[in-house]
Design brief:
globular, homotetramer, Glycerol uptake facilitator protein, mainly alpha
Chain lengths: 250, 250, 250, 250
């Protein structure tokens, strides 16, 4: 439906999906790999392990969003892509292709981390993350992530890489679940029995909570950014509709 | 009194207050939540717990100010809003509404953190923070925060999110009180008996010291930025008076 | 072959090579020096030592790239310079001079760190870093570094210093090898028997893996950024060809 | 001699010196205060104490340079001011006034930190920092600081706050002396017998090494930035000569 907003500057879908695939793969390599390294070197201090895991993830995200943002928007997250589709910035066809690329990339990235650290390439996680507080944490984490992505993307898109990286580093700490906040990340982390893994049976609640958090955020941001009754200015703040050139909100 | 400076680009008051409410709520979720997580995972090392608490708060602030700044200015602090009113950038009606939203949001955010970490939703803190050095610390912390907000906002508003986040991370460490520097934050932290709490009986001295620090900063910044006797240039450095589009100084 | 793209704003080769020499020297001083300091002060916690080593390296890189980027492009890495030559942004003569300056600078910087910490000026490292996972780590680390450098440099060159610094801090943690990702750095680190050293016999595999990773990245980035069949816009995104004024992709 | 370059946008000297005084005072409050806090909370881990000290100092510097840069250039360092005078960007009269403000501010800031932490207001430090490696460290630290300040200030002045903050955080770790790199800071730290103090008898060697490092950097930067034989472009890269509005290079 938004195909008509594709400009001549938008890369072809195959290239954009390749960027989503490569970026999400690298994101999982960062998350899972730094979790293993932090765990191994922390001498039993979970606090130190999570500190290094959270700093590496946030810093890695800054670099990855800067690198791939100009190609695909650097969503790396099915719920970000879905929000963009709902807001009319991504076509339904693109959404399907992006999401497939993200799930596939996430799996490859996890395997890559395992290979670097001489862990089994794929195993089921036994790391329990169950219960209401965990689900609430995922709701809050994803609500916040989408609010940051959409809020920053609207007016300060050039700052989106920094905002998202900073948010994710913080969210490891202010949620009880360490803020997965991303269905592709969550599913991939079922397959690593290391520091950042999650038991398959705990995944459905995470996915539901994440989806609800994202939906709530989209509703909030839509209302916050709605035009004034007497003024249409905010309704069309940018002429970049359809262009993925300026960051995460493409 | 500054109503006449409201431009057609300023969102309605209800939306701006919603942004202050949501942003302040999220700030307290970050502060209180990361305090709990850091404390639980630090194995008794208060230094490690405060390090993670301070990094999460600073990083979270960067993201939140970037996300909500274009809507409301992202004050999240009654003393910042009061300073803006004194400097003629916020109407008295807006000030009252902002402050109410900030206090309400701070309470909600604290409750949200408790729910995520399965703590009692509201309890009085027993964490003593009393004495002259603590009060002096709050004076210094708030003086510095306002000086950064007003100084950066004047000429480099696009850098305000980074400046405030960096300042707050540092201030956790260079003050003896860990730099509350915000009445809404201080009052809300009475209601958490966790790492970041403060005994209710210690709050009045904090609020007085914070207010004095902010007032001193406003006086200093006003003098530093005063126009030259022979030159009016600095008196009108920007044409954005009344517009909250470019960051914390609204 | 690209000599004809040298503009009047490109500094002379001698000055650009001096910048590569000084910058690479300082980079090694940062890497080796902060490794020694972190190791000495960590009380046996390898996690804490690597955390300080990785933060110091990333932060130092941000400063060094900002300082020397306008002169030489701040490559500090023979594989970055080689990629620039392959992409037609650096002449073959410049490439040879850059690489020589980088290797010489790296050795001097290592000696400088040793002198500051009262270590022997040059010794062979006995730190084993062998095996397939280590080589794979170097492949991944260098692939990612080049992808970030080339991806960010293309559209957001002013953010390249932040992107590279953030990437390197993360890569210390998400690879099993702590991400040397740079032949000049690797060779120089043979000569320090401290925290960041590498046994000479392990160096060849590192260099081969780094080169393969860089080559793979160049191929990927070329394809991702290829022009549309019907649109030549992306093929000439910038008119700065040959100018090293705007960051790492000079 | 550069008085004729003062534009109508340059604040009066009294205001600029007040900014240097307040900024340098706050810098010492950050350095000394965070050193005390880190030391008290680290449970004997010098590595953790220095990590928090270095992060707080770097983050604080980012905020302070952003806040005071538009007024005075945010030198906070007699050697930076001297370099600016040598390069013709600060008059001799301004230099004298800046330096006096910096030394006085540094002393006040140290006293302020002591008051916040209930330490004696002023005491002589007994912290030994002697020997050739320490002096060499100060030479390297100051050489690097000036190179970053002058290099970034020339072409990317808006990034100077980030560059300087990042450099200083790194320099705590890659030098053996923790990088004082500033005569006003060094003299003030004689008066604190806490984590960041320095024995008075060790100060002269620090000051000499810092001065030599700064002088070497000025010579290098002058040569690196010299105009081409056939091209005067780089000799006049900016029209902002004499204006302190855009950051540290005033």
């Amino acid at each position: 439906m938004t195909l008509n907003t594709q400009t001549s500057q938008t890369p072809e879908r195959s290239r954009r999906c390749a960027a989503e695939f490569a970026g999400t793969a690298f994101l999982l390599t960062v998350v899972v790999g730094s979790g293993i390294m932090g765990d191994r070197l922390s001498g039993g201090s979970v606090g130190l392990a999570l500190l290094t895991n959270s700093l590496a993830t946030g810093a890695g995200l800054v670099a990855l969003i800067l690198a791939f943002g100009p190609i695909s928007g650097a969503h790396f997250n099915p719920l970000v892509s879905a929000a963009m589709a709902i807001l009319g910035r991504l076509s339904v066809g693109d959404l399907a292709a992006y999401v497939a690329a993200q799930f596939a990339g996430a799996l490859l990235g996890t395997m890559c981390a395992h290979a670097m650290f001489a862990e089994p390439v794929l195993t089921w996680s036994t790391h329990a993350r169950a219960g209401g507080p965990q689900a609430l944490s995922e709701f809050v984490a994803t609500f916040g992530l989408l609010t940051v992505v959409l809020g920053v993307g609207r007016h300060r898109a050039e700052m989106a890489p920094l905002a998202v990286g900073a948010y994710v580093t913080a969210a490891y700490w202010f949620t009880a679940s360490t803020a997965f906040a991303n269905p592709a990340v969550t599913v991939a982390r079922m397959t690593t029995n290391t520091f950042t893994g999650i038991r398959p049976m705990d995944v459905p609640a995470f996915l539901i909570a994440q989806t609800l958090g994202a939906a709530t955020s989209v509703a909030l941001v839509r209302w916050l950014a709605a035009p004034h009754p007497l003024d249409g200015a905010l309704a069309q703040p940018r002429s970049t509709h359809g262009r993925p050139d300026h960051g995460i909100d493409g």
